[in-house]
UniProtKB/TrEMBL annotation:
Residues 1-20 form the signal peptide. Keywords: Signal, Transferase. Pfam families: G_glu_transpept. It comes from Hyphomonas jannaschiana VP2. This is Gamma-glutamyltransferase. One of its GO terms (molecular function) is transferase activity.
């Protein structure tokens, strides 16, 4: 009996990362009596990783990169290498970011490409300013809500806009974003920035493990839409991407994309939005019965916007882009979490996760009703982070149980579970002059809409799927309007306390905030949740940069979304569920369930993470990348 209990105890002790389920176990009671009862035992686990040296970093799977001159972190090794090559050739961090993004559109079309949108935050050391860019495309001007509703009625039971096909397509904003960023901050000719991607598109680009996995998954996703007729045309996508989808280790060629990028390199942004390429896209949508037309491309423009920032724990300032993105949700969560002593609670503890999840639910309730294109909604983003607002909201949080009903905390003029998934690429680059770029780019869900224009080599995004169909909602589909956006770059400042030259009292006020961290996370609605977890890992839990990204994450799903009805009591009463990665301790999972939280192990959308941090003492960059993706961080 003692031996049986000892073995069971040892098994449990070595399986903190295993999902625990009830199983019948036979055990000996006294001497000859045998009974069967149900106890909790660990499921068999796959072999784990090896051991690292005891450096004091308990979570990270590898070391961060330290670089004195420049650094880059992307989701593909070739894109990171391309960025470093551009920096060494005299390009700015923006040149390098454009080059890396163009390469990612070739080697990671499962997440991004010139058929999608782009958002960026740039720290410019020359002007000592933080700049935001919103490269978001708009809906077709010639379509109506009735046109889009008809597509929803035919293919989605009227509840939502189809993910695949022309109803979800908005004007791609990426190319415009490249040229806007380059005009302000570029040093090399943009043709030089695009040259590496063009060369590899013709000669063959290497496809690694995770990207290959998603590539094959996307082929399966499209089949249902092809069979239902929601996807008006799929032959071009099949020829470009699925003949067959590349395996790990394959070299993928895309000569059509090489030709398209070459025309952009030679003719500038107008080649894409007003020239022969725009005419070709117009002809394609006309042929398949889609909605976009030449005028939609010709009238497109992105926007320089002011990032929105909040102070956290006095010595840190975190910055995001305002709506129509969801970045401000991360700031709302941080303001709520100021109330809690997370350091004492500890990383991965039940109280810590409970506080974070409930803060997320409150922030996302505002997100559901108030995050929309400000040109149409007229909602001031500062209202979401007004002094005292989120502190007051945090008073609703009870660590012993989930809130039974969560409503928006503000009244907005005049929101389904479709945002959990999102395939996006995030990259960051820093140069020797101190410029830091935080850039995110996406086709939204999967590879995008499934539509590839004739001989152009890229897929159009399905970002328009994120509009609401409710006429009362600020995010309702309207002609010429930007949809709600999930993709968000982030940036953070820190007070360099040891480096302060002014010794006024109090010292916290004398020290200015210094540019510290360019970072981001991928994955639909996970992004603001992930941004908060990274900041907490660095600030409250004293993790290193690589460790902060490698640490196991939680993800909450449920509640209202900006894509549903404006008033929906059902989603307000939806407590949702918390998905945990396997590294969250089993006793935390059990205690969350005891407090009334529905928990799933181990299906969290951990997202993908990249970051570059400035070391104030040495002046070097520290760069980290994502264990959940294929990429690397590098520097020189």
């Amino acid at each position: 009996m003692t031996a049986v209990r000892t073995l069971l105890t040892a098994a449990l002790a070595t399986s903190l990362s295993a999902c625990i389920t009830p199983e019948p176990v036979t055990k000996i009671v006294e001497k000859e009596v045998i009974v069967t009862e149900t106890v909790m035992v660990p499921q068999p686990t796959a072999p784990g990783p090896g051991d690292r040296m005891p450096t004091g970093r308990d979570v990270g799977v590898r070391s961060s990169v330290v670089a004195p001159h420049g650094a880059a972190a992307t989701a593909h090794p070739l894109a990171t290498q391309t960025a470093i090559d551009v920096l060494k050739a005299g390009g700015s961090a923006v040149d390098a970011a454009i080059a890396a993004n163009a390469m990612l559109g070739l080697v990671e079309p499962t997440a991004n490409g010139i058929g999608g949108d782009l958002f960026a935050i740039v720290w410019d050391p020359e002007t000592q300013q933080l700049y935001g860019y919103e490269g978001s495309g708009r809906s077709p001007k010639g379509a109506t809500l009735a046109d889009i509703q008809a597509k929803a009625d035919e293919y989605m039971d009227g509840e939502m806009i189809p993910f695949h096909g022309s109803a979800s397509v908005t004007v791609p904003g990426t190319v415009d974003g490249w040229f806007a960023l380059h005009e302000k901050f570029g040093k090399l000719p943009i043709a030089d920035d695009l040259s590496p991607a063009i060369t590899y598109a013709r000669e063959g680009a290497p496809i690694p493990e995770v990207i290959s996995y998603y590539w094959h998954m996307n082929q399966k996703r499209f089949q249902g839409s092809v069979e239902s007729g929601a996807l008006e045309e799929f032959d071009n996508a099949t020829e470009t991407y699925f003949s067959p989808p590349p395996r790990e280790g394959a070299l993928f060629k895309n000569p059509d994309l090489a030709d398209t990028l070459s025309q952009i390199a030679e003719g500038g942004r107008d080649a894409f939005y007003k020239g022969e390429l725009a005419e070709r896209m117009d002809a394609y949508f006309t042929r398949i019965g889609g909605f976009l037309r030449y005028e939609d491309f010709a009238s497109h423009t992105g926007n320089w916007i002011e990032p929105v920032c909040v102070t956290y724990r006095q010595d840190y300032k975190v910055c995001e882009l305002p709506p129509s993105t969801q970045g401000i949700a991360a700031l709302q969560m941080l303001q709520m979490l100021e109330k809690f002593d997370l350091r004492s609670m500890g990383y991965g503890s039940t109280d810590s996760i409970m506080a974070q999840v409930e803060a997320k639910r409150l922030a996302f309730a505002d997100r559901a009703k108030g995050y929309a294109d400000p040109d149409f909604a007229g909602i001031d983003p500062q209202m979401f982070i007004a002094e005292g607002y989120n502190a007051k909201r945090a008073e609703l949080i009870d660590l012993s149980k989930p809130m039974p009903n969560v409503k928006a905390g503000l009244d907005f003029p005049a929101a389904d579970k479709k945002l959990e998934d999102g395939d996006t690429t995030y990259l960051t680059v820093a140069d020797e002059n101190g410029m830091m770029v935080s850039l995110i780019q996406s086709n939204f869900a999967g590879m995008g809409s499934g539509l590839v224009a004739d001989n152009m080599g890229f897929m159009f995004q399905d970002r328009g799927q994120l509009f609401s169909l409710d006429p009362a909602h600020p995010n309702v589909w309207e002609p010429g309007k930007r949809p709600f956006h999930t993709i968000i770059p982030a940036f953070a400042f820190k007070k360099d306390m040891p480096g302060c030259q002014v010794r006024a009292e109090p010292i916290e006020q004398a020290c200015p905030f210094e540019p510290w961290l360019s970072f981001g996370l991928m994955g639909g609605g996970m992004q603001p949740q992930g941004h908060v977890q990274v900041i907490l890992n660095l600030v409250d839990f004293d993790m290193g940069l690589q460790e902060a990204g490698d640490a196991a994450r939680w993800e909450h799903r449920g509640g209202c979304e900006p894509t549903g009805k404006y008033d929906d009591p059902a989603c307000e009463a939806d407590i949702g569920k918390v998905l945990l990665e396997s590294g969250i301790p089993t006793d935390t999972r059990a205690e969350l369930e005891a407090r009334g939280v529905e928990v799933e192990c181990c299906q969290a959308n951990g997202g993908g993470y990249q970051a570059i941090m400035r070391d104030f003492e040495s002046g070097a960059y520290i760069a980290a990348t994502e264990l959940r993706k294929d990429g690397i961080a590098s520097g020189y």
